[in-house]
From TrEMBL:
A Pfam family annotated for this UniProt entry: NB-ARC
NB-ARC domain segment(s): 1-57
InterPro entries listed in its UniProt record: NB-ARC, P-loop_NTPase
Keyword annotations from UniProtKB, A to Z: Plant defense
Keyword Iron-sulfur part of the UniProt annotation: no
GO biological processes: defense response
GO molecular function: ADP binding
Identification of the protein by name: Putative disease resistance protein RGA3
Amino acid sequence: MAIVGMPGLGKTTLDKSVYNEFETNRHFDKKIWVCVSDTLVVNFILSRMLESLNPTRVGITGQDALL
């Protein structure tokens, strides 16, 4: 789930609250926190997310395979 908006609106505060909430945590085996700058390279971000969750999946580049 993406939360976007102007700086200073409290997006990170909201994110941290939801991310660390016990009721949210008990529904997921793994969680990942991703911060994206203005430059969005989707395949690079997806690849790094997959690698951090499963290091044996290094080198996958196709967006369909990453998803």
